[in-house]
Specification:
Elements: E1 2-5, H1 26-35, E2 39-42, E3 48-49, E4 53-54, H2 55-65, E5 72-73, E6 92-94, E7 103-104, E8 113-114, H3 116-129
Parallel strand pairs: 1-2, 1-6, 2-5
Antiparallel strand pairs: 3-4, 7-8
Helix pairs in contact: 1-3
Length: 132
């Protein structure tokens, strides 16, 4: 199962270009999903650019330092076999800006963020119940 996951507002609080506080339960659920076989793809607007710095690399390093192993970064390496589309292919996309995504507003956060207490179990159920 391919899961494309946004960064700001989904894994960390919106503090762009900085990295905000962790969204409650985000890393915990990403680790659980990866342990059940999900292939995690970081799908973010962050990029590395001489004008702005290493914003994408910083996000990748944040995840790696928390034990999250990414299958891809803004791309799905497996799709190169069947398409040249720049859109990363995933079975599911988790993004605080996605219509219908459950959100919470933790104290001190800049904006609402993904409610992983609701999203995590649903993704785990999908990961464990379907053959991808």
């Amino acid at each position: 199962m391919y899961i494309c996951v946004d960064f700001d507002g989904t894994i960390v609080d919106h503090r762009y270009p900085g990295i905000g506080e962790p969204v409650p339960m985000a890393v915990t659920w990403l680790l659980r999903l990866q342990s059940c076989g999900a292939r995690l793809i970081l799908f973010t607007m962050r990029s590395d650019d001489p004008r702005f710095g290493t914003l994408l690399t910083d996000a990748v390093q944040y995840l790696e330092s928390n034990g999250v192993k990414l299958f891809g970064v803004n791309c799905n390496p497996d799709q190169k076999e069947w398409t040249v589309s720049p859109k990363a292919y995933g079975h599911v996309y988790v993004d605080d800006s996605a219509f219908g995504c459950p959100l919470i507003m933790p104290k001190g956060f800049a904006r609402p963020c993904v409610d992983w207490k609701k999203v995590g179990p649903q993704l785990e159920h999908l990961c464990l119940s379907r053959s991808w």
